[in-house]
Design a protein that fits this description.
By secondary structure, this protein is mainly beta. The chain is built from one helix and seven strands, in the order E-E-E-H-E-E-E-E. The strands form two sheets. It has a five-stranded antiparallel β-sheet with strand order 2-3-6-5-4. Strands 1-7 form a two-stranded antiparallel sheet. The longest helix has 7 residues. The radius of gyration is 13 Å and the shape is globular. It starts with a strand and ends with a strand.
Length: about 90
């Protein structure tokens, strides 16, 4: 299931990576439903074009003034990941 598009990537001092972008899900009524849909692992696309399964550390959802839902997703990036591809899809395959 396609969850979001990566528009921005922020690297933190604690080794986590924060991905932000618009939500692709539809048909939900509660923010908690959105957060639960990300689960414990998601599939991301590296800048090398490789899909990797990474653990989810946190999910934050907000609604912009325009009405678009935005997601900030904290993940633990594996050591072999050089970076997350911008404009790529975050997918929950589970």
């Amino acid at each position: 299931m396609e969850l979001m598009v990566v528009n921005d990537v922020l690297l933190t001092n604690g080794g986590q990576t924060i991905l932000t972008g618009p939500l692709l899900l539809t048909g939900f009524s509660l923010k908690s439903e959105i957060e639960q849909s990300f689960g414990t692992h998601v599939s991301i696309l590296s800048i090398d074009g490789e899909r990797l399964l990474v653990p989810v550390k946190g999910t934050w959802v907000s609604q912009a003034m325009s009405g678009v839902w935005q997601v900030s997703l904290a993940i633990d990036c594996p050591g072999e990941l050089d970076g997350v591809a911008l404009e790529s899809l975050v997918i929950n395959d589970l």
